[in-house]
């Protein structure tokens, strides 16, 4: 017996990417999502075809990260998180959604759980 396509998730570690493409030339921006398996000792391998649009009509989006970059530092909010050896505690996203000329703000925050 086997499971059908789409009913299973690959085992092991997954690299998850959430990204924003800025609007250009009268086209709205979008927030994208991708996940790809990570083999031990290898870099994630997500291609452009792996990305799914989560939300369109985005005129602006900013990510922020709460956590400590060093073990001995207090957690604070950061505009960037490039410290691969540590994960933030919270990732926040603030996006402006263009609803037919009316901008609405969308605030999302995600607690990061690692085991």
Number of domains: 1
Q: Kindly provide the radius of gyration, computed on alpha-carbon positions and rounded to a whole number of angstroms.
A: 17 Å
- Helices and strands, in order, run as EEEEEE
The poorly predicted ranges are: none
The assigned structural class equals mainly beta
Oligomer: single chain
**Tally of individual helices:** 0
Q: Could you give the count of β-strands?
A: 6
Largest sheet: 6 strands, antiparallel
Strand content range = over 45%
List keywords for this structure.
single chain, 115 residues, mainly beta, six-stranded antiparallel beta sheet, 6 strands
Describe the structure.
The protein has 115 residues and is mainly β. The protein has one domain (14-111). The protein is 0% helix and 49% strand. The protein is built from no helices and six strands. Strands 1, 2, 3, 4, 5 and 6 form a six-stranded antiparallel sheet that branches. Strand 5 (90-99) and strand 6 (102-111) form a beta hairpin. The radius of gyration is 17 Å and the shape is flat. The two termini are 31 Å apart.
């Amino acid at each position: 017996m086997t499971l059908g396509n789409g009913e299973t998730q690959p085992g092991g570690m997954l690299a998850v990417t959430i990204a924003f493409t800025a609007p250009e030339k009268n086209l709205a921006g979008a927030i994208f999502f991708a996940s790809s398996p990570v083999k031990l000792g290898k870099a994630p391998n997500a291609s452009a075809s792996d990305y799914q649009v989560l939300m369109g009509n985005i005129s602006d989006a900013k990510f922020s990260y709460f956590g400590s970059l060093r073990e001995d530092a207090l957690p604070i909010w950061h505009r960037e998180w490039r410290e691969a050896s540590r994960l933030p505690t919270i990732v926040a996203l603030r996006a402006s959604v263009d609803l037919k000329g009316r901008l609405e703000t969308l605030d999302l925050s995600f607690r990061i759980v690692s085991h």
